Amino acid sequence: MGDLSELELVVLGIVWKRGPCTPYAVRKEFATSPSSHWSGSAGSIYPLVRRLERRGYLRSRRESQGRRARRTYTITRRGTAALRRWVCPPLPDEAAAITYDPIRTRMYFLGIVPPDRQSGFLAEAEAALRRQIRVVQAECARYAGLGDTFSHLAMTGALRIMRARIAWLANARKSLGCMTV
Amino acid sequence: MGDLSELELVVLGIVWKRGPCTPYAVRKEFATSPSSHWSGSAGSIYPLVRRLERRGYLRSRRESQGRRARRTYTITRRGTAALRRWVCPPLPDEAAAITYDPIRTRMYFLGIVPPDRQSGFLAEAEAALRRQIRVVQAECARYAGLGDTFSHLAMTGALRIMRARIAWLANARKSLGCMTV
DNA sequence: CCGCTCATGTAACTGGTTACATGATTTA
DNA sequence: TAAATCATGTAACCAGTTACATGAGCGG
After folding, report:
1. Looking at the predicted structure, is the pLDDT value of residue B180 above 60?
2. CATH 2.160.20.10: does it fit domain B6-92?
3. Which of A15, A94, B131, B162 lies at a C-alpha separation of 20 to 30 Å from B122?
């Protein structure tokens, strides 16, 4: 039960949401997602779905479309149960832990750069976030249009976090500005 | 230059901040950190610092304290330069990308659980975040007390994100509540 | 017909994890 | 003095990445 990795569960979830689909479709989902946590590379997905099938979480069917062989995967009852068990409480403690933020990681060591370049870092990070936020907003609107409530809800969460990061940087810029002036 | 992993750079940063220190002290830094992104396991840190020394980013000295042999590491000029280069702009795009959030990941697939248990998930997640936030607040105060401006600033960023996640869940609870009632 | 994207895979590598081993030092 | 913890390491493993190989179908 606890033998499924986070990526495996996400793939299970994607197959559950989309219904019968090819590994390639799953990969595209990762490729178009604004998150870069998983690459969804062929080297991860193809072995993964076969692994899931071998363990009974997925079932596959060969369906030749034209002369082209392709394999579509469907979630099994066992897969659905595993997915539900993962989503439902109890939530492991680390799920609520501090999330990883590369900008924050750099912030710890910002003292190493000369003070006149510190605000440059903050400004650039803020600008990068503002660029990214538009992508997320678009994705948010797309899900709303599709009527996918939960994906939409998830995206609003991502949006809120990005806005919090921007506000944080703006505030940091002010408090550092006070120090150096 | 770009041959250093994120973890290697963070370790470099820790050694820079604390001055000469043992791998064990570095490990403790990871162990006490409220973030669980890296475990800071012996198996990662000990080989890592030796790797950094071999490449000239760290220098080490054997100093026997009592009968006990220990090795303290110091950052070299090369190490300092690498760290500064990493912190400074230009920031890679993925640094501003959506961060990974295990609660959000689950949210995508929340439709798989029966509607009467969905709000349970949201409530539990919110409660877990509220528990965690106290830890972060304490850490925040600790850094403020130490006068470590940048670590404190980093922590306030983490705090803002956690608050944003809580607000997001509270809002989700409301919008799902409307649907099911 | 050439090049691009679709689509399915494999192989080698790698960074980090878990688990284990060992001995010194401190504390009950 | 026994147990706990400090401290330094090693070895095996593993999930996921990068890079490569292959071929179908399609648009210019």
Report:
1. no
2. no
3. A15
